[in-house]
Write a structure and sequence with these properties.
This protein is an all-alpha fold and 380 residues long. It has one domain (2-165, 180-368): Growth Hormone, Chain: A (Up-down Bundle), CATH 1.20.1250. It has 14 helices and no strands. The chain has helices at residues 2-19, 25-53, 55-75, 77-81, 85-111, 115-143, 146-164, 182-201, 206-215, 220-248, 250-266, 274-301, 308-336, 340-362. The longest helix is centred in the first third of the chain and has 29 residues, at 25-53. The N and C termini lie far apart (43 Å).
């Protein structure tokens, strides 16, 4: 529900800021960067909060905050049409949504015997939302305007809140450790790698939506179809990729995934029409399938049970920092060039760098691996 509602707003936020509020692409990037930066800082505290007061309570608190903010956008035309109030509400939405991410990841970690499997399932559910949400958003904007987009977001937040009350909470044992140790150092390096990779991921907002609309001339429905493709490919392929990842291990899976993800975004430069952009989306989605669950699984594996929420908060904070830098980078690049290879070259460079760093630092680190699936038949 969180992905379904938030994705429909997040994907079209840059276009709303530019086409409705009249801001420039660079100003769009600055606002999204501000929101992502604040979210990055608060995710660490969201993780600590979830460790101390419960994962379920943190998730419920997030949904309540999001519902209130959507009420403001739906019920007050000033809030959604003001150059001052809408950015404030939008940043608050980003922050409120981000607070529940460490709690959700920690709850999944505690509930899963095989971390990679748990995070793969979580990713399928999340991407159902992130696939369908933008498609619904594009349909609503084309047919009825942005107001109904905000109304849809409110409806999904209410449903999400209702479902959150049914979650069975898991409480970690012991007190949280704050002492810096080897696991923390690996966590920081892994988080920096994620930051660099998620600078690329952030291009799905400012860069991809404006590139598709302004440079390639796609309409809102076509843009929604690109994001729907992403969600559908995840649903169809995540199980297959999970089985491959269990055989390959987290180390190889993350390298393959990071490369495919970065190359997928870069390949938008090769294509001029919708079909080619859909193919690029399929490539980057396979990269997501390999890299994103493996990243979360590795954080879980190097964390003490009582610190999982805090460590997930730290990891997600770096991810949010990448999402903060990405829109600013994309907005700046789009403001100085319209050449596809320059646009996607500059905005994907950090992703390729992240894989080089990861491959060098984590080579031979056994504590990021789960027991691989045996290639032999059962009983042999």
């Amino acid at each position: 529900m969180r992905g379904l509602g938030y994705s429909s707003i997040w994907i079209y936020s840059a276009l709303y800021l530019r086409t409705v509020l009249g801001l420039s692409i660079l100003q769009d990037g600055l606002i999204i960067t501000l929101g992502s930066g604040i979210a990055a800082i608060l995710q660490v505290y969201g993780g600590i909060l979830s460790d101390r007061f419960g994962y379920k309570r943190t998730i419920i608190l997030s949904f309540i905050s999001v519902s209130i903010l959507y009420i403001l956008l739906v019920g007050d035309s000033t809030a959604r049409n003001s150059l001052v109030f809408f950015p404030i509400v939008f940043v608050a939405l980003m922050v409120s949504n981000s607070i529940q991410m460490p709690a959700t990841s920690a709850l999944m970690s505690h509930s899963s015997e095989v971390k990679l499997k748990g995070f793969s399932i979580l990713r399928i559910g999340n991407n159902i939302g992130w696939g369908i949400g933008p498609a619904i958003g594009g349909f609503l904007i084309s047919g009825s305007g942005f107001y109904f987009l905000f109304l849809f977001g409110f409806a999904t937040s209410v449903v999400g809140l209702s479902l959150a009350t049914m979650i069975k909470d898991v409480k970690p044992s012991g007190n949280a450790y704050v002492k810096f140790h080897a696991g923390n150092r690996l966590l920081i390096v892994l988080s920096i790698v994620a930051l660099l990779l998620f600078i690329v991921q952030a291009q799905e907002t400012i860069t991809l939506s404006n590139y598709a609309k302004i440079i390639k001339g796609l309409d809102y429905n076509d843009i929604g179809l690109l994001y729907l493709t992403n969600g559908l490919v995840v649903i169809l392929t995540q199980g297959m990729v999970y089985r491959a990842s269990r055989k390959l291990g987290n180390y190889i899976s993350f390298i393959i995934g990071g490369f495919l993800y970065s190359f997928g975004f870069f390949s938008f430069a090769f294509f001029s029409g919708l079909n080619g952009m859909i193919l690029a989306t399929v490539i980057l989605t396979f990269g997501e399938d390999f890299a994103f669950p493996a990243g979360l699984a590795m954080v879980s594996l190097i964390s003490r049970p009582e610190n999982i929420g805090r460590n997930m908060g730290t990891y997600n904070a770096f991810i949010s920092a990448g999402r903060a830098i990405g829109p600013l980078l994309g907005g700046y690049v789009l403001s100085i060039t319209t050449t596809p290879f320059e646009i996607w070259g500059f905005t994907t460079m950090s992703g390729f760098l992240s894989i080089l760093i990861f491959a060098a630092v984590f080579r031979g680190k056994g504590n990021i691996q789960e027991q691989a699936l045996s290639l032999a038949p059962a009983g042999k």
